[in-house]
Amino acid sequence: MKRLVLAISLAIMGGAQTANAAVQSTGAVEQTVEGKKFAMLVQSVKSLRSAIMTATEIKQANPSAQFEIVIMGQMVQELTTDPALQEAYITAEKYGVKLTVCEFAMKVYGISMDAINPYIKGTPNAHKYLFQLQEKGYNTLSI
Predict the structure, then answer these.
(1) Is 67 left (phi over 0), alpha (psi -120 to 50) or beta?
(2) What is the CA radius of gyration of the chain?
(3) 98 pairs with which residues across the strands?
(4) What are residue 9's phi and psi, to 5 degrees?
(5) Is residue 41 within 8 Å of residue 130, measured between CB atoms?
(6) Using CA atoms, how far apart are residues 98 and 67, in angstroms rounded to an integer?
(7) What pLDDT score does 16 carry?
(8) What CA–CA distances, in Å, run from 130 to 4, 48, 93, 114, 141?
(9) What single-letter DSSP state applies at residue 36?
(10) Which bin fits 96, alpha (ψ -120 to 50), beta or left (φ > 0)?
(11) Average pLDDT for residues 98-123, to the nearest whole number?
(12) Residue 59: is its pLDDT beyond 80?
């Protein structure tokens, strides 16, 4: 009988510890970024919005950080047709997040630089430009 009571007590205590560990593991993970230069290559509107959100969070924590988002692929068509993106451009400009678009993709999809927001600058080739940013010490990510 003592063994049964002991086993039940240990099971209850073990269950309580497991539940407590589960509660502790659901807490937020600290997300600090030590770098000073960041660049993201994006190919969809959803990724662009996510990149701008990430950039603003980093810039709020470290205003001197440099952040650039390079836009490429078929999504360049949406730069002129999605009115909701205007707010994203304003946010990027407010926080000093540079936006650069692949001019090659623009040519492929028949979009002129005059048709997009003037805050967005062009680069002849997005992939080559990302390599150049890496050579300049940028932490890069493609999404």
Answers:
(1) beta
(2) 23
(3) 68
(4) -60, -45
(5) yes
(6) 6
(7) 47
(8) 65, 16, 20, 23, 9
(9) S
(10) left
(11) 94
(12) yes
Element containing residue 68 per DSSP (H, E): strand 66-71
Hey, how many other C-beta atoms are within 10 angstroms of the C-beta on 134?
13
AA identity, residue 30: E
Q: DSSP code of 40?
A: E
β-partners of residue 102 are 123
Partner residues linked to 77 by β-bridges: none
Phi first, then psi, for residue 117 (nearest 5°) are -55, 130
Per the listing, tokens 């926080």 go with 95
Helices (H), the chain: 2-25, 45-61, 78-81, 85-94, 103-108, 126-135
Nearest CA among 42, 33, 44, 56 for reference residue 100: 42
pLDDT reading at 104 higher than 90: yes
Alpha-carbon distances of 113 from 7, 21, 80, 105, rounded to whole Å:
73, 54, 10, 11
